[in-house]
Amino acid sequence: MFARSPVLNQSDPTEFVFRVFTAVPEFQALLFLLFLLLYLMILCGNTAIIWAVCTHSSLRTPMYFFLSNLSFIEISYTTVVVPLMLSNIFGARKPISLAGCGAQMFFFLTLGGADCFLLAIMAYDRYVAICHPLHYTLIMTQKLCLQMVGCAVALALYLSLQLTSLIFTLPFCGRLREINHFLCDVPPVLRLACADIHVHQAVLYVVSILVLIVPFILISVSYLFITLAILRIRSAEGRRRAFSTCSSHLTVVLLQYGFCALVYLRPQSSSSVDEDRQFALIYTFVTPLLNPLIYTLRNKDVKGALRSAIISKAASGSD
Question: Considering the entire predicted model, what is its pTM?
Answer without folding.
Answer: 0.87
